[in-house]
Specification:
By secondary structure, the chain is α/β, with parallel strands linked by helices. The chain contains 13 helices and 8 strands. It binds adenosine-5'-diphosphate and magnesium ion. The site of adenosine-5'-diphosphate (ADP) has 15 residues, from helix 1, strand 7 and helix 11.
Length: 307
């Protein structure tokens, strides 16, 4: 993801990955937990952060009880440094920072708190920081997604989840447009392009074309910034080849409609080992190392690492 200096993220050595998606129960925490474990097993130092404030359960997917200190304590200034929140997990190289257990949802996090949190991530001793964003498209969730180096979307192959995923993509597109607008000071130009829209089938990618017609230089800058938006897509709970194909269709539609490169990086089968491991409160990859999903997670991590 592109880092405009509006995000508040500093240039540390850490790579930040964010896992999001339209709705709850699609497997965001499963993906966050197991991508973190894969990276840790490869020898990287990893911190998984549960930003699903209000619905935090990442700790269960990682096989740890609710840590004593959570992000609530940090946001309420009972704990002054993020470092104090890191709790080790049974997996070497992997720690967790747990989300709030009260109702302080991420939606309610103040702009200052969000910027502070983002700017303090670099103080953590980690190679990779993986954010479990929780459900929804609130401004804060979108900003964390956009600030990360990799933004990963998890979707189920069913209409409600697909709709929610498109809604999420549309929201990050508009959020990004707003950031670029302020950054390039092209608000009036975008308004002009918006006013010029005539057709019913006007798509966001038409907007860029329209801006380019008015001002070629700014139009291509805008196009470049939007092209930096390359969210990754994982389809979870796959049962048939048709389910897998949904990932490819979504990639094509995204390109056509938003001019955005959605990168379909893999799928995960529907597998009983997932809920069996959740019931045992044990990490899937450790409890069922021979599960077919292990290879799938491995492939996804390799795609994300560009290996
Ligand atoms: N690939 C899968 N196969 C079987 N069950 C799954 C799979 N992925 C998720 N689940 C089930 O869905 C539940 C919700 O997953 P979770 O990762 O907690 O979703 P989210 O974080 O998006 O709310 C899990 O507890 C598990 O029972
Ligand atoms: Mg979750």
């Amino acid at each position: 993801m592109a880092l405009l200096n509006t995000t508040g993220l500093q240039g540390g050595k850490q790579k930040i990955w964010a896992v999001g998606g339209g709705k709850g129960g699609v497997g965001k925490s499963l993906v966050t937990a197991n991508l973190s474990i894969c990276l840790a097993l490869m020898g990287h130092k990893v911190i998984a952060i549960d930003l699903d404030l209000g619905g935090a359960n990442l700790h269960t997917c990682l096989g740890v009880p609710i840590p004593d200190k959570t992000l609530s304590d940090y946001l309420a200034k009972r704990v002054l440094s993020l470092k104090e929140l890191t709790t080790p997990t049974p997996i070497e190289n992997l720690s967790i920072i747990s989300g709030a257990q009260d109702d302080v949802g991420i939606a309610n996090m103040k702009q200052m708190q969000k910027s502070k949190l983002l700017s303090k991530l670099w103080e953590l001793d980690a190679d990779y920081i993986i954010l479990d964003l929780g459900a929804g498209t609130t401004a804060n969730t979108l900003d964390f997604f956009l600030a990360a180096h990799q933004g990963i979307l998890v979707a189920l192959p069913e209409p409600t989840s697909i709709e929610n995923t498109y809604r999420f993509i549309k929201s990050i597109y508009h959020r990004k447009l707003k950031m670029v607008e302020d950054f390039l000071e092209i608000g009036p130009l975008i308004d002009q392009a918006m006013n010029a829209k005539i057709s019913q089938n006007y798509t966001p990618s038409d907007l860029i074309r329209q801006v380019t017609e008015i001002d070629q230089t700014l139009g291509s800058k805008l196009k470049m910034e939007i092209a930096k938006l390359t969210p990754k897509l994982v389809i979870n709970q796959v049962r048939t080849q048709t389910d897998v194909d949904i990932g490819h269709s979504m990639r094509i539609i995204c390109k056509k409609y938003f001019g955005m490169n959605l990168d379909f990086i893999g799928y995960l089968d529907y597998d009983a080992t997932v809920w069996q491991s959740v019931k045992k409160r044990r990490p899937l990859l450790l409890e069922y190392p021979h599960s077919g999903l292990v290879n799938k997670f491995d492939q996804i991590v390799h795609r994300l690492l560009n290996i």
